[in-house]
């Protein structure tokens, strides 16, 4: 079983990496990009039967800083 965890900064949290990407895109001639939010994707290979609650615990304890980041989980 696989899990994909998407981690993003919460709205209202300054995203300096996203701003740097937005600026770089403008410098390369890509107009019309008004904002960029950068996040991360974590893919986990899990033993069959691993519950979504277990993955949620992983996120809460290690994979995401829940003070400033939100996350979503996809299981397949």
UniProtKB/TrEMBL annotation:
<dbReference type="InterPro" id="IPR036604">
    <property type="entry name" value="PurS-like_sf"/>
</dbReference>
<keyword id="KW-0963">Cytoplasm</keyword>
<keyword id="KW-0067">ATP-binding</keyword>
<keyword id="KW-0547">Nucleotide-binding</keyword>
<protein>
    <recommendedName>
        <fullName>Phosphoribosylformylglycinamidine synthase subunit PurS</fullName>
        <ecNumber>6.3.5.3</ecNumber>
    </recommendedName>
</protein>
<comment type="subunit">
    <text>Part of the FGAM synthase complex composed of 1 PurL, 1 PurQ and 2 PurS subunits.</text>
</comment>
<dbReference type="GO" id="GO:0005737">
    <property type="term" value="C:cytoplasm"/>
</dbReference>
<dbReference type="Pfam" id="PF02700">
    <property type="entry name" value="PurS"/>
</dbReference>
<comment type="pathway">
    <text>Purine metabolism; IMP biosynthesis via de novo pathway; 5-amino-1-(5-phospho-D-ribosyl)imidazole from N(2)-formyl-N(1)-(5-phospho-D-ribosyl)glycinamide: step 1/2.</text>
</comment>
<dbReference type="GO" id="GO:0004642">
    <property type="term" value="F:phosphoribosylformylglycinamidine synthase activity"/>
</dbReference>
<keyword id="KW-0658">Purine biosynthesis</keyword>
<dbReference type="GO" id="GO:0006189">
    <property type="term" value="P:'de novo' IMP biosynthetic process"/>
</dbReference>
<dbReference type="InterPro" id="IPR003850">
    <property type="entry name" value="PurS"/>
</dbReference>
<comment type="function">
    <text>Part of the phosphoribosylformylglycinamidine synthase complex involved in the purines biosynthetic pathway. Catalyzes the ATP-dependent conversion of formylglycinamide ribonucleotide (FGAR) and glutamine to yield formylglycinamidine ribonucleotide (FGAM) and glutamate. The FGAM synthase complex is composed of three subunits. PurQ produces an ammonia molecule by converting glutamine to glutamate. PurL transfers the ammonia molecule to FGAR to form FGAM in an ATP-dependent manner.</text>
</comment>
<comment type="similarity">
    <text>Belongs to the PurS family.</text>
</comment>
<keyword id="KW-0436">Ligase</keyword>
<dbReference type="GO" id="GO:0005524">
    <property type="term" value="F:ATP binding"/>
</dbReference>
């Amino acid at each position: 079983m696989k899990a994909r965890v998407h981690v993003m900064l919460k709205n209202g949290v300054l995203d300096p990496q996203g701003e740097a990407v937005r600026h770089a895109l403008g410098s390369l001639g890509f107009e019309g990009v008004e904002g960029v939010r950068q996040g991360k994707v974590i893919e986990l290979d899990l033993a069959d039967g691993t519950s979504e609650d277990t993955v949620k615990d992983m996120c809460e304890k290690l994979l995401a800083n829940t003070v400033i980041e939100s996350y979503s989980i996809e299981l397949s």
